[in-house]
Give the backbone structure.
Amino acid sequence: MQTSIPRRVVQLALIVTVGTAACTAFAAPLNLVQAFPDVFVTSNAATYDPNSMQFTETGRPLTYSLPTSYNITNTTTTSYSLTATIDHTGSATGGTLSILGKISALGFTSGTLLTGTLAPAPAFGYGNSTNGDPFEFLFTVTGGDMAGNFGSTAGVIISAKSTNYVDWSHSFSNGSGATNDTFRVPEPASLTLLAAVLGLSRRRGR
């Protein structure tokens, strides 16, 4: 007899499995999968200076999805800020995340929506971005009105649209053509819960 596993559980399984596999290597794609809550950012400007080894990205946070979508107000094109120190081998050794704005409908009115610091390595991944592969980051959440919904870890996927990336010994900039999603990454405890749910579903189907 076939077992029917709820679609929501399957989606969570994919997110947890891929997110866990992400933490295995430097200078390789993390293969993060977007999840809720999610902040969508537009008008992103990403640059890298090989002399200071500083990667910076700024943009305008547009919506916050739970998955119900809410507009983020009181923003500018620099209300989203991500910085990272990335050496010439492509390894990240530190960084910060800041999302400013307000969502009055949810009571997020302090002006600071989310803050974070680069998570323990490996927390940065990328593919061959000359072909449009994204840059991916993991940040440890440190504060902001959204912190309770994000949990301990936020994932970031930056599209590499229009970037002139060659390697980490050269400077590059993508102008303002990229987009960005910042979202919750399931915590390790979710693995145990997921295994229990899947096991229960299978037993009930026998």
